User: Which sequence fits this backbone?
């Protein structure tokens, strides 16, 4: 059983929701990435979404875009991200790690090499933001071939037929984009999420994580009531941006812990 | 026979719809609506009317006789797209997309722009059809192209400076895509070149091929036959495919595209991903040859004219080259060429850069 499935199964038995923090690998610099991952797990993270920095992050807002730029300046690359996951796995063989990013760095490496490397270092899922199901055949085959879960996005604009299509391809969990906009935007509409989720569940039997625009514990709790997992990205990246090397671990831990407690009460 | 794109928007291995899920329905709506109007007689008639009475088409073909004589080689004819309303070929496409936006009931249009020509064209058509217009432009480009910024504002457009990344065209493109994701229901994205997700490359080509269609009529009128070769500069590729597309089945006419060589292909500092046979990758919604580093990060293009080039080779041209082994040439900036470019650029703060680029290329052909 994959780490992702094992994690969601265990949570379900405890009637709990997953907390899925996102941050960009290599931000503020590569030496802090693995310590940040461990700190998040200790503070209550169930799954870690690790952002692969890209020069042109079209679906991201300014916060994650700046994180990408900082990471790239530090020399972070897809290869580097995979190496960091390998280091993380030396001490944590339980927490699922999902890589989230754009297709071109993977294209440059080659999907076959990438998928094999994911399996070697212990990556559990891959979410390629700009690869919709229509363009994901190769990616899907290579990832599946190495037991890596392809994670797909669904959006408020996604129509029923497409939900069905995604349901056939998706593994691990499905990531529902909770607003029309980029990551970190401020126009989250809870009632819209509430309306949309039953429609998704008609086809999606996997756990559904919700993210984009969840900026505080109150919202995280409200969203957690509606789904199986809450993804918090920009808010965490913002915390990293506003901290220095000495305070970043403590600040991010405190934030993740606050989110954990809020979600536990959902 | 050249029959691209296929129904999924691919030009052989190129093209596609590489977009975040949030935008897929928008792209799909656009595809369906464009297919509906692509061959609609009323739509085509309105487009033709606008091209004639608003853009001022057909644009003349000019025999650059003195220059041909001086160079002593081919007789050179310039298709004067610079004489269109707003001074470039960009308006052909902007009008077409605005007419489609109107039919789709979109009241707000957005655009990316590099040198500002597509921004000016979009601001112009938005004013013409009473639409709100937002233009995203790199902060660097805004500094370099202030006359065009002034023109856009004068036409009522909001020009948003883009401070992210390299602060140039590709970043403006990213920002426009972000706007579109956020305002997907109200907004039509008037994309400026033959790139982006399907159906943009096809749609832009269809609107721009008026260039080649006219040339095919005008050349026999002037010289009694088709030219031996058609030549165009290739950045995003919309003027090039506009000229080339109608000539694809004319097997006796050589098709030559010219990319900007910058400091030379070997230097890596250029804007010639096709010539350099750059690795194929995915950016801005399609698969194509990309200027990128070994880690798949997009690199910047090097140019001597602050113009419209994004680090992506012309999609339809890439498809064309694969399907039809005609020339894709390259212009490396020799000192003489660079001098010429600078003169042209100085003279043309009101850009008439396409004929200038073509001229420069011809000069290079002579040199070779």
Assistant:
């Amino acid at each position: 059983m994959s780490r992702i499935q094992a994690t969601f199964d265990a949570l379900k038995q405890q009637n709990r929701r997953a907390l899925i923090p996102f941050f960009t690998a290599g931000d503020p610099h590569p030496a802090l990435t693995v310590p940040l991952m461990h700190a998040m797990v200790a503070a209550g993270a169930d799954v870690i979404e690790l952002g692969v920095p890209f020069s042109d992050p079209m679906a991201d807002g300014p916060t994650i875009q700046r994180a990408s730029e900082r990471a790239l300046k530090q020399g972070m690359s897809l290869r580097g991200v995979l190496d960091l996951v390998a280091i993380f796995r030396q001490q944590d063989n339980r927490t699922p790690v999902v890589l989230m990013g754009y297709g071109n760095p993977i294209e440059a490496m080659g999907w076959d090499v990438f998928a094999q490397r994911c399996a070697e270092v212990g990556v559990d899922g891959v979410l390629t933001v700009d690869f919709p199901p229509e363009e994901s055949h190769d990616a899907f085959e290579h990832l599946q071939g190495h037991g890596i879960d392809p994670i797909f996005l669904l959006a408020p604009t996604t129509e029923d037929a497409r939900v069905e299509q995604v349901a056939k391809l998706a593994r691990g969990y499905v990531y529902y984009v909770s607003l029309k906009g980029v990551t970190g935007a401020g126009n989250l509409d809870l009632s819209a999420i509430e309306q949309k989720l039953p429609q998704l569940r008609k086809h999606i039997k996997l756990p559904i994580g919700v993210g984009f625009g969840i900026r505080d514990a109150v919202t995280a709790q409200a969203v957690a009531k509606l789904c199986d997992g809450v993804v918090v990205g920009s808010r965490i990246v913002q915390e990293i941006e506003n901290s220095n090397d000495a305070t970043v671990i403590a600040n991010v831990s405190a934030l993740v812990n606050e989110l954990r407690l809020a979600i536990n009460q959902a | 026979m050249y029959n691209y794109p296929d129904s999924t928007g691919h030009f052989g291995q190129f093209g596609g719809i590489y977009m975040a899920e949030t935008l897929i329905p928008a792209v799909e709506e656009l595809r369906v609506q464009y297919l509906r109007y692509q061959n609609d007689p009323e739509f085509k008639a309105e487009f033709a009317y606008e091209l004639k009475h608003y853009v001022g088409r057909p644009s003349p073909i000019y025999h650059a006789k003195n220059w041909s004589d001086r160079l002593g080689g081919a007789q050179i004819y310039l298709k004067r797209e610079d004489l269109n309303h707003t001074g470039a070929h960009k308006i052909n496409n902007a009008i077409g997309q605005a007419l489609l936006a109107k039919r789709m009931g979109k009241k707000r249009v957005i655009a990316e722009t590099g040198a500002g020509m597509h921004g000016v064209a979009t601001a112009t058509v938005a004013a013409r059809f009473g639409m709100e217009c937002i233009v995203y432009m790199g902060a660097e480009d805004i500094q370099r192209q202030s006359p065009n910024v002034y023109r856009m504002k004068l036409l009522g457009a909001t020009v948003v400076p883009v401070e992210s990344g390299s602060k140039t065209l590709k970043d403006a493109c990213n920002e426009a895509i972000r706007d579109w994701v956020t305002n997907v229901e109200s907004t039509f994205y008037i994309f400026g070149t033959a790139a982006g997700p399907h159906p943009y490359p096809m749609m832009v080509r269809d609107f721009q091929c008026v260039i080649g269609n006219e040339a095919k009529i005008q050349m026999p009128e002037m010289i009694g036959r088709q030219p031996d070769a058609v030549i165009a500069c290739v950045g995003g590729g919309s003027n090039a495919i506009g000229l080339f597309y109608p000539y694809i089945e004319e097997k006796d006419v050589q098709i030559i595209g010219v990319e900007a060589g910058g400091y030379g292909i070997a230097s890596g500092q250029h804007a010639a991903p096709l010539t350099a046979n750059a690795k194929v990758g995915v950016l801005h919604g399609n698969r194509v040859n990309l200027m990128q580093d070994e880690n798949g990060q997009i690199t910047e293009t090097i140019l001597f004219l602050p113009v419209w080039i994004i680090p992506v080779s012309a999609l339809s041209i890439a498809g064309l080259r694969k399907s039809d082994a005609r020339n894709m040439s390259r212009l490396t900036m020799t000192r003489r060429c660079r001098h010429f470019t600078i003169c042209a650029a100085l003279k043309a703060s009101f850009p008439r850069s396409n004929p200038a680029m073509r001229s420069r290329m011809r000069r290079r052909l002579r040199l070779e």
The interface with chain A takes residues 8, 16-26, 164-165, 170-171, 174, 177-178, 181-185, 279-285, 290, 292, 294-299 of chain B (CB under 8 Å). The first strand of chain B starts at residue 10 and ends at 11.
